[in-house]
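In the previous chapter we treated chains in isolation. Here, by contrast, the input contains two separate entities that must be folded as one system, with a combined length of 576 residues.
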Amino acid sequence: MADRPMLIAEDIHRRFEGMQAVDGVSLEVPRGQITGLIGPNGAGKSTFLAVVAGTMPPSSGRISFDGEDITRLPAYRRARRGLVRTFQLPSEFARLTVLENLLVAAPRHRGDSLWGALLGRRYWGEDEERLVTEARSVLQRFGMSAKESDYAGEMSGGQKRLIEIMRALMLHPRCLLLDEPMSGVHPRVVAEIQHYLQTLRAEGLTILMVEHELHLVEQLCDSVFVMAQGKLIGSGTMASLRRQREIVDAYLVG
Amino acid sequence: MNTYYATNLLVYAGVDIIACLALNLQFGVSGITNFALIVFQAAGAYAAAVLSMPPSSSPDYSFQLYVGGYNLPFPIPWLGGALAGAALAIPVGLVVLRKLRSDYQAIALLVTSIIANTVITNARTFLNGAAGLALIPQPLDTQIDPRSDTYSYFFVGLTAVAVAVVWIIAARIVNSPYGRTLRAMRDHELAATALGKNPVQLKMTVFIVGGAIAGLSGAILAGYITAWAPSEWLYPETIILFAAVIVGGRGNNLGAILGALLVPVGFEEVTRLLIRLNVGPPNLIPALEWVLIGLFILGFLWFRPEGVRPEPRRVFEGGPDG
């Protein structure tokens, strides 16, 4: 089953009031690779990502994740199954510390239920210790250890991006959906994030990522899908896409 | 200061502290703007009343009309009050919390509060309408003479026990990983959903737990003042509690307690003093009180939005700072 695609979207439609934001998109995201999703503003990329993540229901279509039909699953259940998204705009928990942002994401914490909480620290303290250790190792890996006790809301744009990615990793995802993870980030941090994503790929994580900066897509992505006006208009490697006249006209001019 | 005055102050303080802890859990920690909190207190008060009163057909009580009348001993009325608050939270929560965005939730709850008061005021056969219920029995009043000083101490003690129990529950929730999840949902609901949290379930749970706590506060109040009527739970009462939580410090249980002592208790006492001084027309002081509470909320939101005791920053042992 190693060759089975991680994610299959079949004929996804998403209509808004009189507009087809996503108009019959079908694509397969291969396992263990970084797949790019590019296209001009308003092409429907973020909407497509939201439909895949379950934060927006599709008007029609079918999504399967690792062989399982998840079209009807609510977003939080998809996340628990290992399909985790990040957001185009910073979405940190502002009044939680950086470390707490990571701890929130940890699944199956004994203290993360009403009854667990009422039973007190003696019931969930061990889980907490284990997860603090795990979260700290993630922080260290992303060079954010010194910031663990700072409020996430006080971090820079780039650090907030890192928090989002680290938070997602705490869920032990099988597939990450990244919505413009480099937007609004200092160039130095862009290089860092790029490096982290490559490391994650090397560890076997599947990533589907919406990105605007084509040179980043070229460096990072194994294959790329191009969307315009809600439709899929091409796919392949960046190099092959550059040779296709109509795609260049639609988007890649320059 | 006589015993009556001190008892009054302490019992009201206890009731306000309990209500503020409920509101802090819902509003301060979880971000649910429950503008109907007072309705849950009222539900607890009415439930405690009809559980402890004899049927309205009995001779001393025949001047009022109400459902139930079960003559049950303490502590059943208090537990029943908490249960009633929780039970009311289920339908209200299912209607308000599932689909509406949070600002609309606040409006919907405010309207719920007004509708509930109007309905109870006009449905006379249900809970005696505008006149309300009177002669509500006090806890264990057959064992201890309710007019004695001993009873005053006893009631203050009972209230203190209730405050302690609620404090432990609230502290355990707020300081747990579950409380952390609630705070995360408050800060960014969509992101919490994307991390596997079910916001509807979280909000419903907090709404029910807070409803139970508010219900308990109502049960204590009904058993203390021995009367309960719609004029006790008009929607502005909720605003006073909001002022308390905002002034004390949203998300901080100690702040909620401090706010309860500063705002509802403090204002009540200041007003009482001013009324005694007899200045201006009779309605001036209560009207000024509202102006003052409004200014208080605005002033704090403007100059110190985090309150007197802000939500604590949680630093973990063994980190770079610890």
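The domain at 7-90+207-252 of chain A is CATH 3.40.50.300 (Rossmann fold). The longest strand of chain A covers residues 19-29. Compare these points with the single-chain example from earlier in the chapter.
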